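MOLECULE: protein
FOLLOWS: sequence and fold
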Amino acid sequence: MTTWHDFFKEQGRAPDWPYEIAYDREQEIETDVLVIGGGIAGCWAAINAARQGVKVALVEKGDTVRSGAGGPGCDHWCNAPANPLSNVDPDEWAEHMADRPFCNGIGIQIQCRENWDTLLEMEQMGGKIRDTEDKYKGAKGRDDKSKLMISPRYTRKHTYLDIGENAEAPDDTLNNVVIRVWGSTFKPALKKECKRLGVKIFDRVMATSLLTENGEQGARVIGATGVNSRTGEFFIFKSKATILSTSGASSIWMISTELGGYSNMLSRTISGDGTVMAWNAGAELTKMEGTGMVHIATGYKHKWYSGAGDASYENVPIVDANGKPVPYPTQGWKDAGAMIPNMETDKAIREGIRKGEYQLPFYGDFPAMPDVERDVTWKLMLGEESTTKIIIDTFNKAGYDESRDLLQSYKYLEGESLPQWFEAGYGGGILVDWNLKTTLDGLYAAGTQMFSPEDHSYAAATGRYAGRKAAAYAKEAGEIKLSRDQIEKEKARVYAPVKRSHGIEWKELHAGMARVMQYYASEFRTESLFKMGLRALEKLEKESVPQLYALDPHKLIRSLEDVSLLNYAKIIIQASLARKASSAPLHFFRIDYPDVDPPEWNKWLTIKQENGEVKINSLPATFWGNMKEQYEVNNKDYSGVYKE
């Protein structure tokens, strides 16, 4: 196989671009429902819209067969209380799951009511959800009749057990709402079903803007524009209804993707495009000031799944370098159900390390596990999860034997690190109603594109739901007339980097933006720091963006992603300025407003653009109303598996 080094040595130059370059060439597509983003939510949206008898087009920046955060796979199908082994009522479980500050009660209710139906449909499409070969017979949580693999660490009344350290959970406390699945089979099955139903798939196309009636901000959304990452061809999509499912943003605080320890839960291609497109069109966003925390040490952390002790390693005991058990969450322990230690446990472990009670490094003690439980964790859970499959493949090829060898965990080796924002997008997003419709007519959102999203099954269930709702809207929608002026302005913006003969490349802009966010929107938060950060970002937008230079369509896409990330960062700071209080649930702490969660700030802040100006409003903490009643009022025609 020829490497880049070999090619340069032999040819003395970079290889020619392997695809036809077609900048400015247009292709116009007319459809009833346009889905932007071909991840889990997007594929489900396209499939269910097509099943309603409407024409559907799906636009995906990568290749739909494996694209998105859930494309490589998943090991847990969470919050499926309608499954036949469940010990809880779906509506009660939804209320329980929504009994948290700043969660999305709308999405959670949809997930709890519909994602068992969704999983059964996945099985019909060819996805594997049962241990049909009896490979894991005898494993804790396996049901011999249905051959479903229930995850044993989730409990009936709470996500944490409270039955005493090292005690076994009584069977009647198990809620049985989380199912272990073979998620690597899901995405290929979804793409195949899209094609079977006649969905027109446009892979390698980045959507760049939403088109609105008369080109006006705040008006009905009637389509979108896009550009092909290989040819540079320009796409104009004309649609009666549009669904955004491109997730949140990633890499906003990260400077270089090329450092050896670069760690991010999501792909670099998840760059806030959908959120920024909605923002530019005038849609309302919420929770943009709070997206959780990540700990970044002097370098970059390893992935969460890098040793043991997280969700996929849910039942692996942790020991220190001397084999001493470490009080880390595992099934049957006091704080089982957590993917990481709670604050008290984490503090106790750190103090134990400093006092010499625990010797670093820590290890996952796979050999101590029963054979069937070890096989379930190593071969099913880690083998099916998108972020861990590569780990087990690499380790196995290197000679690792999980029945004999401990697995080193990098947790705590990285020391006390600087708290910064968690960038997976599981916080801010687009505001939606009970139809998953945004504040703009004709525009819907699903999955992690929405505010306060959840996991893989949440994306699937809400995508499926949004497809149904958007299709119904499209059937009643009026005629569409595109604004040519709006299209021409977007073409000029999109192609500006390839029209230049020199300038700065996308990596330079990314580095500058990330540094601004690290300095001014990170550990220490004050009004003055936020304003300095906003000015710095605006300076980059004014002085650096006009210098972006792209040599080929690939670098053009990276440049456009940077512009999305820059705008996403500005929105975060604008929303941060608006919340004049600290909040523990939002992981948002301001030095100049130290009161944590004062009652008057127990509300959602919404943010949108109106005539180019930022507008801040608010909504009550549970603005969605009675979850069961509202779901049923808005879904009278839904006939799924779930019955009273």
Summary: The first strand starts at residue 26 and ends at 36.
